[in-house]
Every structure is written in C-alpha cells, then in structure tokens.
Amino acid sequence: MRKLKEFIIEKLILICGLASIFFVVLIFLFLLKEGLAVFKTVSPFKFLFSRSWYPISEPPQLGILPLILGSLLITAGAAIISIPIGIGCAIYIAEIAPLKVKEVLKAGIELLAAIPSVVLGFIGMVTLVPLVRTMFHLPTGLTALSGSIMLAFMAMPTIVSIAEDALYSVPKTYKEGAFALGATHWQMIWRVMLPAASGGMLAAIMLGIGRVIGETMAVMMITGNAAVIPNSILIPVRTLTATIAAEMGEAVTGSEHYFALFAIGIVLFIISFAINVTADILLHKRQ
Amino acid sequence: MTQIKFNIKGLNIWFGSIYALRQISMDILANEILSVIGPSNSGKTTFLRMLNRLNDLSQNFRMNGTVMLMGRDIRGIDAELLRKRVGMVFALPLVLPLSIFDNTAYGLRMHGIKNMKILKNKIEESLREAHLWEEVKDRLDEEAFKLSGGQQQRLCIARTLAVEPEVILFDEPCSGLDPISTAKVEDTMVKLKQKYTVVLVTNNVKQAARVGDRTAFFLNGELIELDTTDKIFTVPKDKRTDDYIRGKFG
Prior knowledge:
Chain A is mainly alpha-helical. Helix content of chain A is 76%, strand content 1%. Chain A has a two-stranded antiparallel sheet with strand order 1-2.
C-alpha cells in the first residue's frame, strides 16, 4: 500500500515536471510554424534588412529593420542610463550603506520592481513625456529618449539585486586581504570587489537588458510607435514588441501580416534567449 | 632597554553580546617574535586583528581600553596608514590570479608607486626577505597559482613586506602547509625579526615553542600568562597553561 502511494506521487511529480517542458516546446513549435510561413513570400534577408514596414499596403512591405533598430536604440539608451546607476546603487547597498539605510533601499528597489509596467507607462505618459517635449522643444514628447528613461527604471531593480548578490558573495578574505595591505575603502572596492564579482555583475546587466528588450506595455505607451529608421533619440520610434502588441488584433489570421508578426516573435525569442544564455554562462563561470 | 612597540592597557572587546577579550594589558616589544597560543574561541585572533584594526570591519564591534603603537593611540591613526605599518599574513595564502610579480607589487601599486625601476628593486628585495627569490627569480611572469602552498604563503609574506611595515601579524600562517613548507615559513619568520616585530597566532603549540621569543596564552578571552617562551614551556605559573601545552585540552 505504501509502495503504491510512493509510486503514484513520484509519477505525479514527474508529470508536473514534464508538463512545463512540454508546454515550452509546444509554444516554440507553434511560434516556428506560424512565423516561418512568412518566408514563403519574403526572403529572411529582406525581412530582416529592408527598410519599410507597411504590412497592410498592397503588396505588403515587411521589412523589420526599423523595428529592430527601434528596439536596439531604446535598449541601448536604457542600458546607458540604468547600468551606471544600477551598479552604483548595488555597490552602495553592498559595501557602503549602514544596515538601516540598506534595508530601506532594498525594500525600495523591490517596490520599484513590483510596479506593473502599464502603470509606469501611464506615469511616464503624463509626467516624463511633457517634460521631454518642453525640455528639447519638440513637437511631441513621445520619443525614444522617453522610452529609454522609462525602461531604465524597469531594468534597475534586476540589475541592482543581482549585482548586489554578486558583490555580497565575494569572499570576506579578499576584502580583508586588501584592507590588511592598507587599501582604502574605494581601492578595495575598485581593485578587489569589482574584479571578483565581475561575472555576476555582467550577468546582472544582461538580465536587466533582457528585461528591457522584452518589455512591451510601457514602450508602446510612450515611444510614439512610428516605424521609421531612427536617426536621433528625440524622435518617435517603434519596437519589435510594441509592433506585435499593437497589430496582432487587427491582422487577419493566416495573412502575410499575421505570419510576419509571428516571425517578429521568433526574432525576439532568439534575442532574449541569447541574452539569457550569456547571463547564465557568466553566472556559472563565477562559481 | 628594548623598545616597546605596542602598549595595550585594559583592552575589552565585544561583538554584540559576546565578550571576546577581557581586560587585556600587555606590551609587545620591538624586534621580538611574540607567539599567541590558546584554544579556539580564546580570543587570540581577535587580539591579533585588533592590532591592525581589522576588527573595525565587523558589525557590532565595540571596545574600550587603549592600544598604543609607538606611544600613539591606534584609533587616532588613519586605518589605511596603520595597516601599512602593521602588515598581516592570513591563514590561507591569499594569492590573486595575477603573475608572481604583480602579486608582490599589488600593495605597492595600491599605494601609488608606478615607477617600474623602483617596483623591480622593491620586489626583489621583498622576495629575498621572504626567502622566495631564489625559487622564483626566473619566472616572475608566471601565474602565482602555479607555486606550491608554502611558496604561495611566502609570496604573501613578500607582498606584505613590500609596503615596508614595522610589524607583521601572522594568523596561523602554516595551518594549511606541509611540514617542509612550514619549516621554511618558520625560518623566514625568525629571520624577519631582525628588522620587524612579529606577532604570531598559532594553533600549533610546538610552533610557538620553536619560533617565539615570548609566548602569550589566551583562554576564554583572558590573557592567562605571558612570559618568555622558555619559561612558559618549562615552568608555567598557571596550571591552565601547563594543561594546555601538555595537550590536556583545546
């Protein structure tokens, strides 16, 4: 009787484990099946590198280069803002802040992570967008810059918490060794902590960037969504994610446009996958 | 009259609610090797880490009493400056993933010395003092990890010597080493006392007997006895000292 019970529980757990893998594989296959169909009409090269995205013109023009560049521009902007602030914040929390300040800061960072992206987008729309418009005297504040700033806020919690973890796990003996040679606090951080934690810090950055690339709602609300090749950070752009979210509802099932949106999904999937794998390798190299 | 390097008066140390050192008063003389022995949790490492203020890094650290280095309260000296004057060698050789040369130059570079000629001279001098020069002079550019455990520990000693300290603290420097490497490190320590003051914390009672000029015995945070090594090991005044060195406890 007991053996039977063991057997049933074991198998149930096995099924749970397999189910998650099964669903992932299913989703991936579906994505591939729908997405690859677009390449019957457009060559992959043309899809990735031609400059115009007019999916409902006749014949449809399905070049996602402006969308890729839009995503990259906004991501780069967000990275430039969030990496220094995030890493600085992690160093402060891990090494400098007194215990009480540290607790308050960590709670604050967690709170920031808990704000739903649509709320951040909404707040950005009514505060940041007008600010950017008046500051740079633009016709509209819905620009790549606004998107980058907003996304930087979203990437920050990820970067801070993982980087702080990496700093925290540097062996105490390293720190003491540096201090015992007469290092100042900053010399210790710069010459010992940062090199020793570099793997984890890079992973933190990668995961932060991964979050930015995949983000949809906030960017859709504040970047203006114009599918043009960006030549400045002060003009509206459109990202890969926003394109799918905005157009999927109107695309006719089975049309080229529909397949193209799935293909964009594949491109996004590949980008996120590459980022996550890189982060994973960096994290494990450390241990 | 021998010069007094450290003068310690009424030193008490707490970590939170743990009373780690109780009313320690003693002197450490210049150019002596002072061995500090005692079972684990006796406070001997806390005592050592007091001398270069490494305890300051611990949370909940509290102290009273005074520790004077050459007549100046060490709490009135910049911690960085103090630690440059009072170097420390740890239990496990703390070798960095750099070349032998860069490992030895680490402290010097941190203190702003960049001139290659000065660095080279200083490094040769330090490695000679640590009795490692002959073994590594032809391969200074090799990774320091390739050295044996004993060589790594002597490399750490050289790195500490390079910043020109007055006092060197050894925290169980041979705990991870084989007998031959241990003998070499001990040999190095004995030669170092001509120029430096050496404080050695060790779990190895025989090591204290071999290298120490004087020996201090700590138990439960108290200094039980401090005398010349000969006396401690032949006619200890306190029964607990006698029991410990005979291996009855600890």
